[in-house]
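Revision sheet: structure tokens.
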Amino acid sequence: MIAETVCSAVAAAGLGIAAITAYRKRFLAATRIAAYSLVPLGLVMTGVVQWAADTAFSPVAWAGFGVLGAAWVLFASTRAVERRRGGTRKERKAAAAQAAQAEAVAPRASAPSLGAATRPTARPKGTQQPTSSEDFSDIEAILKKHGI
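Predicted:
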């Protein structure tokens, strides 16, 4: 009841301000102020204010908002877990089946046995051991070529 009275008073005050603004020859601003001041009156006339007041003071409505919030939290957490795992259950099954099929077609080769050489390789006397900066010169050239 009091909310309707407040909304009606706000609308009346807004229309008064709009009339004063129009008297000062600012018609565009006056029209905008009148539009804003008619919104609370329209909300009262459609019953939205009464519904909002009933909802604000109803414990059942607040419990409903709590249930909606809990549902949203559950939904968001399942989506977060799903993203961490890498997709839905169906997508993980399909990826596992594809990996099994690829392994059956072409098994992985065993690691080559590169043990220590039986005799050390001799370097010519005129060459030096390359330093770490010389070892990566070709890699640095590739990175520079790509702008990295």
